[in-house]
Amino acid sequence: SWTSSVNHKSTNSSFFFNYGSNVKFPTLLEKAYIENYEIITTNRDTLMTRIKPEYINSFQLGLKDEYRIKNASIGSIESGVTYFHNTIYNKFLKQPYDTYIIQTQTGRNITQGLEASLRFNQIYRILDISTSYITMDISNKTLYAFKPDQKLTFQIDLFSDNNLSLSGRCFYEGKSYGWYYNIDNEIETEKMSPFYDFDVAINYELEIF
Question: Among the residues of 73-181, which ranges form H helices?
């Protein structure tokens, strides 16, 4: 595995580029349990040497900004945007085949997308507001079961002086694809429609010492 990075920083901004390659060799457990389509369809054994290492080539290109504001109304504003591109060869995954769940390898899959974020810190010293958006394109969508093609998140964090905080998060997830077993033990593919959700959490930090 290796990674190469290029970074350039100015007063408030930073530009970065990362490129890396990683290899994952099959574990003893994967070698022991992996099954090939040929085994199921022909009942012939296959040599374990047919299992290939998994290779991942990836790069990221992005820009980050941070502006510190010298007044009581807001502490700083952070923003960023990143483009990513990953190419995976010989990915290990589980797939349905007839009445079996087999572990096999794919030839090649490309995942690419764009991620953007914006954050306001220490608004009147009691409030943080952040939002983020990610859009993703997967060449073979069923390889990553029910992974949304886009996601939008909006979050508010409220703090107090007595170690008590309140967080509210609203998010939207786009459509996704996957497969599952139904109640009759039959394999079905499914498209999950976009949906919204909202979470609220109350946190308290207890100081022991």
Answer: none
| Distance in angstroms (rounded) separating the CA atoms of residues 155 and 168 | 6
Q: Is the pTM of this model over 0.85?
A: no
Distance between CA atoms of residues 67 and 78, nearest Å: 7
Do 157 and 125 form a contact (C-beta atoms < 8 A)?
no
Residues 176, 134, 113, 88, CA torsion sign: negative
Radius of gyration of the chain (CA): 23
Helices (runs of H) and strands (runs of E) counted in the chain: 2, 13
Q: How many residues does the chain have?
A: 209
Whole-number Å distance between alpha carbons of 148 and 136: 8
Q: Dig out the tokens for 70 from the structure.
A: 């010298």
What tokens were used for 77?
A: 């504003």
For residue 207, give the nearest of 163, 166, 141 by alpha carbon: 163
161-208 pLDDT, tens digit per residue, is 888 899 999 999 999 887 666 667 666 777 889 999 999 999 888 877
Q: Per the structure block, which two tokens stand in for 90?
A: 């010989």
Cα–Cα dist 133/150, whole Å: 7
- Cβ neighbours, 10 Å, residue 148: 20
